[in-house]
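lol forgot to send this yesterday, sorry. struct tokens for the thing we talked abt
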């Protein structure tokens, strides 16, 4: 595991973008795994800038999102598909047919998860997977207790995830969905390279739990310690409780 520490979220986002850019310049056909949420916003803005100003191209790349809420359509502003269009895809040259994300409105979500699993298997391991982390240690929507053998599936979101994500559902009558389709721990761990990003004081506890104790299914992100090509990017606040590991 390689750990890097940053004074602020902007420099962290630029470092993450440089890793993505290096992977893409070495292999323009790279398969990328992508998260949503607050964490990757700076990264996506920097990738858009690199595309506009420094010729970074996604034209031959493929992107697979980690997860999607069950019940939200691509036109719902809270859906992850909408998020990706707004924050990244409409700013870069990744072809429409190379953007994969589970459908939140499939009639049969279990079959949709199986379809997504088959798609990932068909394309082979991701070259680079970017992850955020939930305050309860989740990665993707693999909540505490998720099996390390898990694959793409429909999951119940933890209460902590539902209350934490309520900040995105502020309109009248809007509620956080209680289920999602997510890549499993097996899909995540089979990526060739993983970047874990975390910023802010609210992530200090889960980062400590994930990185400084023995890996356990109770803290999903702790499995990442077993990955042979993991880069952890943290701002000072998120790294605050790591003690000796910082030095
Ligand atoms: C989102 C995802 C989640 C988030 C995590 C952190 O696609 O997979 O695991 O990365 O919930 O969310 P933020 O970045 O909003 O703190």
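and heres what i got for the seq, position by position
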């Amino acid at each position: 595991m390689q750990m890097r520490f940053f004074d602020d979220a902007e420099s962290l986002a630029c470092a993450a973008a440089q890793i993505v850019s290096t992977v893409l310049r070495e292999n323009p056909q790279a398969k990328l795994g992508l998260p949503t949420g607050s964490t990757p916003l700076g990264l996506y803005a920097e990738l858009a800038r690199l595309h506009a100003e420094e010729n970074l191209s996604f034209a031959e790349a493929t992107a697979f999102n980690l997860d999607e809420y069950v019940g939200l359509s691509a036109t719902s502003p809270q859906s992850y598909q909408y998020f990706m269009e707004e924050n990244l895809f409409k700013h870069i040259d990744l072809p429409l047919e190379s953007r994969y994300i589970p459908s939140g409105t499939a009639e049969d979500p279990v079959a949709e998860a199986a379809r997504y699993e088959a798609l990932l298997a068909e394309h082979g391991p991701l070259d680079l997977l970017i992850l955020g982390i939930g305050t309860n240690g989740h990665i993707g929507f693999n909540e505490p207790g998720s099996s390390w053998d898990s694959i793409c599936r429909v999951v119940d979101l933890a209460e902590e995830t539902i209350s934490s994500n309520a900040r995105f559902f502020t309109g009248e009558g809007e509620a956080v969905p209680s289920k999602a389709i997510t890549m499993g721990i097996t899909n995540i761990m089979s990526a060739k390279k993983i970047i874990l990003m975390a910023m802010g004081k609210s992530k200090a506890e889960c980062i400590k739990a994930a990185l400084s104790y023995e890996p356990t299914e109770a803290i999903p992100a702790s499995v990442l310690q077993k990955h042979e090509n993991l880069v952890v990017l943290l701002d000072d606040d998120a790294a605050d409780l790591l003690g000796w590991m910082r030095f």
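Helices lie at 9-26, 41-54, 80-87, 109-123, 159-165, 185-189, 204-212. anyway ping me if u want another try
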